[in-house]
User: Fold these one by one.
Assistant:
Number 1:
Amino acid sequence: MLPWRFTALDGNDRYVATNLVGEHLVLDRETIGKFARQELAPADPAYDELKARHFLIDDDTNVAVDLLALKVRTKLAPLANFTALHIFVVTLRCEHSCPYCQVSRANNDRGEFDMSRETALKSLDLVFRSPSPALKIEFQGGESLLNLPLIKLIVEEAKRRNETARRELAFVVATNLAVLDDEALTFCKAENILVSTSLDGPAGLHNANRPRPGRDSHERAVDGIHRARGVLGHYNVGALMTTTSASLNQVKAIIDEYLRLDFGGIFLRPLSPYGFAIKTKSYAAYSRERWLEFYFEGLDYIISLNRQGFDFIEHYAAMVLKKMLTPLQTSYVDLMSPAGIGIAAIVYNYDGTVYASDESRMLAEMGDQTFALGNVHRDSFEDIMLGDALLEPLTQSFAGSVPGCSSCAFEPWCGADPVFHHATQGDPVGKKPLSAFCTRSMALFRGLITRMEADDDVRALFEKWANRA
Amino acid sequence: MATVDVRILATEPEILCELRALDKGTKAADADLKFRREVTDHQLRMAIEERTSGYRDLILGLAFSKTGLQGG
């Protein structure tokens, strides 16, 4: 018997078993009991399945352990690339005043919330210390385009440095598109920069979630999407939605809006417990169970759309399915263990403070500097990456070493998320039975497996998503 | 925010843990339950960590393996 774990799938005496790399099988209670007691006969049909997926070896197998080791190495190899995503908060200024904003914003005429040239250059020093062969620099705010001159400087300087560093360099501008002008578009086109925007759903919902002077956030976002696609190309413009209590009864309308605007998919995101979301009680406004209802209603709707011929993907599911159904990892920081903080993504704030993740910055805006790793003006790469603020939560939260996760069958697919657990329980590890992250993830894994088991067409669809994510 | 202060008196052969509420809203039974839960949780953490730290350190070592920071 090779290392494996199991857990109940549903109330029908079905169990999910996972091996060391997250390959899984659904087995009935009797079969899993026999296997656990090492009483499963080679003639049992489940025996060959377990053998093929490296749950067991026998005298007929001489390559299984080597194959499993190869899969483990494949899964873990990307870790050694270290930090690939570098987020520059070029300004905290924003002309929107979204009540759920997870990055507490400043009024758009307060220039002291802009990143300086010196801070940007010092941050770039750290970016190029990462050994990652691919470096993605993402510009965030506030509204990032309110500091376009600095974005231009960073892109120019990064490209200059990359002439010798020779990395695969990519840039993303995260913007609400409300202040998008021709200068920004021309620049993005010339420098091959992707655009990521916010789209919460149809106009009524989007504008209620995202107030701005003129109450025309949706109109501006849609107009900006069309203009950006026209200049940059259709697939170089992405959108993310934020779920609020007002979204919960509108999941189909939200998905329809993404379809109407010809997006190839949607990321049905839960609300994070940070920033104004907590200050305004938005986070407490709906329970984790209600979000799961919202999520699965949306997922089932998307599955039905695919049955009708629409090629449309749910990105959260796709990232999880990639972990479940392929030997590859996702770069989604929340679903990484060791956690992705610092070592997969890192944030350079407008004032030079370096944060372990975007969520860490949001927490800091609430007055909690636990995950502030240092400052680009004061601290070296070594100080930042080897400091206790990063190493302690990374080590403590490693899922394979914490109660509730180390024995969980879903651990190969799950993440550690120390920032979430610190924010909600005051501890980077957290007690998993009390963790909304754990509840949500377990329900998601079970929901995806149940749907695959019930319908071969859904399995085929999920396999397609897994290989595209 | 801490709601209970814990005073530990280690006098062999027993260890006496004295809980003192820091605010009037904290009930003794709740404080006792919470304290026991924390102790159990941390004992479990230590036991699992002892068993799995080699595996954990190997993987964390891999994450830092190309940074040039090892031995620092």
Number 2:
Amino acid sequence: MVKNKQNHKDDLSIFFEVTKSSTPEVHPDLKVRILRDANKTRDELDLVQNRTWLDRALDCLKELGGFPSAVGFTASLAAGVCIGFYSPDWSEALASVFQIDTFDEVDFTSSFFGMNEIFEDT
Amino acid sequence: MFNGLQKKETDNVLLVAFANGDRRAAQQLTGRLMPKIYAHAYYRLGNIADAEDVTQEVFLKLWKFAPKWKQDRAQVSTWLYRVVSNLCKDRYRRATLEDLGNAQEPTDGTQSPSDKIDEQYRQKALYDAMSMLPENQRLAVQLRHIDELTNSQIAEIMDLSVEAVESLTARGKRKLIEILQTHKSELGYSDG
């Protein structure tokens, strides 16, 4: 039994040896492909490492949608600033359009549909 | 021991040199590590084309990872074995044996045709038998007995303790023997 097992072990080492010895030669083209990848990656790394703040800003802009999106964003920003500084009083214009004399003031401090009273009771 | 340490530093230093812009470092690293990684992929997949693709992919990942590499980290070869074994795992089910029979031309010209056939059967039988092993046993056996790595290297690659690797390898070998015995006729292998 022991002898039989020893034979099997020897068989196994023969299998391993055969497998190791029969590895096909590495095709020279594989090394060329790998080194081409290395050079390409190195080029990309060089590009990233040599970038200025302007390049990064332009990239950021490109990610946000490019020039059209920048124009839209700037216009809305400018409109916001103008409206903020010179806020127009459009109540009269609106009153003339909708044919009303006054706007009701909403009092947010008073009870909302009597809810306050309900909660006070409980 | 000293040689191993020196080699480890050299691989790591080369990778850092590549990350810092030295393109020649890539040539040296490729020359040194590519044959081992290719052999591992080939034994695992049994297919030249897949083995080449996987090897190229592994090295591409290495080049891209180079800027983040820390010298005191793992060995470059350990990292590569880990990546190649994961990639092979993904491709394993799709791998076929069709190239194995066609591409094997033993380099020893003194072999008779029957010896060649016997070698091819043995190789195919081992491949088939190994494919019947559980994934971790298969990887441990391959790394130990075909790639000839040490148990501590395998432990690092598989993220296990050395004892666990020893146990996996032993169980894997026992199971291989059983499979080869049980499926002798199916695998086209016979004693002698």
